[in-house]
Amino acid sequence: MKIFDPLRRKEVELTPEEGVRQAVITWLRDTCSISPTRMKSEVPFEYNSLQYRADIVVYDRNLNPDILVECKAPSVKIDRSVIEQVVRYTRVLPVRAVMVTNGTTTLFFKKSGNGYVQADSTALL
What we know:
It is built from 2 helices and 8 strands, in the order ββαβββαβββ.
């Protein structure tokens, strides 16, 4: 089954992770009032000579990375390894806030000093 990704502007396979990603895009747009023109999905970047992709990056009005969203399938537990993955991503994408979700469990973090501290969803606004 396919689903239209409004950020990539194409049909993509509806995997469990993709379902979570599309739900987050809708939530960011409809609840947080973030324009889709400020969001990108599957953003490629390099870290330690390896290629990675951020699930969703929200850019500020100056087009700098502002919020990083990591989506997992509902069957994937949000554990230390997932958090460590996101921390690696923030070394390349210096964002103000981070959201990690599997559609059931959602954690928010905001930049504080040299790291990130757990926060609530208002960290994204």
